[in-house]
Amino acid sequence: MNLVVLACAIGLLGAVGAKPSGHGAWQERFITDSQGRALILYGLNTSSSSKYSADGMPWIKQADVAAEYNTLGTDFVRYLIQWSDVEPEPGVYDDHYLAEVRQRIGWYQAQGYQVLLDMHQDVYGAAVGGNGAPGWATDSGGLAATVQSPWEMTYVQPGVTHAYDEFWGTRTDHPEYQQQYVAAWTHVASYFARNNTVLGYDLMNEPWGGSVQGPAFETGPLAHLYQNAIDAIRTVDPNHWIFVEPEAATTNYGLPSALPKLDDPRTATPGAEARIGYAPHLYPAPIDSGGTYSGTDQYLTDRTLASWQTQVQRTAARMDAPVLMGEWGLDATQDGAHLYVDHIQTLLDTMMIGSAYWSSDPGSWSPWKAPGKPSDIADVLATAYPRAIAGQPVDFSYDKSTLELTMDWNDKAGVTGSTDVYLPPGDFPDGGDVQLNGDYKAKWDASRHILSLTVKATPGVTHHLVITPTVPGVNESSIG
């Protein structure tokens, strides 16, 4: 996130904003599992605490992961790692740190989660007041890098700009920095290449271009780094998904991205599709800066959301990449917070994409008041959603006022397995009543609140599903 463009972002929304499109397919590419099923990932970021802990680990214990599933029904986590922890000295990788990460991935595996490893950075690195890059890979030129308030303004401190310019090659003193960043990612990918709980890799959190901004940054240094990292990772891991983020200072606020299409070497294998995803963040300016979801702030926020949807869809189409919202959130103690979460969940359903809420750390932005103690926003975040769709998604939505989940999808060659839907116990305490055209088999896992539907393939027919809460003794066709 960055506030440098806050004023111009709000001013430009009138020019680039658009009403969100209605339900219906707008994309052909989805994140898929080994069975070819489209995944709609829904979860949290874990976690901001790892950016400052001595061992680089988040606050969670294994019991907290179990509580996360039991409270929210999530199936996904964006797990923060840092370059400084992976490579504390040049060319020296800390496999003990990666083993600790692997242990925590195991906790998520036990709950049926997918894990995205995010190489996190904010304000470059600790040596200039941020986090991410190791001190040995930081050259501030001896310039001031004083932490500012709000913290995002630290990005434009002279020493921070100098450090980014050295990394991106705008200055030419340290061409080795990018090479070592790519090598560090290659080591991480090699370590986790055979871990099936790992969904993939988010190459850099919220990139910032230093003195080079906008399309010149995204189509130049950023795209160059991404392509080099993708090429290197594919030498050790041909299968996991690789996610790229746009420049945060514009895209977070609903402005356009110029990020180009990137090549995936795995497509050189006959029949193999690219596995590169687009992972923008969403922080509307009023919400990000502590505003409420009411009055003028709500109007400006809604304009941002409409523009964000339009711009993300355009970029994803250009890149031929599925979308995963890597971060979104707010201070849930502010007025209108519950309504805002409902609005974002509707946006996610409309776009048929997954997301990771920021973040799991207990506090005002979290579903936890304290470890093991849900906050008020937890009940709002817990929602019905399709976890996996055995075919090509066409449309889905969940109406919280009527507790009706609807979904349409088409059969797709090569896709196997069931269509799985999570039904939160607060809305579906006794399971769900199913209306679905065609022949199907249903299985209800009451302990995990997952309804699995195996549908007989019918070429040319759109499967139409409606699920409503079972009323004991009334809905005879209920699954519960």
Automatic annotation (TrEMBL):
Keywords: Glycosidase, Hydrolase. Residues 34-362 form the Glycoside hydrolase family domain. The keyword Protein biosynthesis does not apply. The keyword Hydrolase applies. It holds the Pfam family Glyco_hydro_5_C. It comes from the Bacteria. Residues 384-467 form the Glycoside hydrolase family 5 C-terminal domain. Belongs to the glycosyl hydrolase 5 (cellulase A) family. This is Cellulase family glycosylhydrolase.
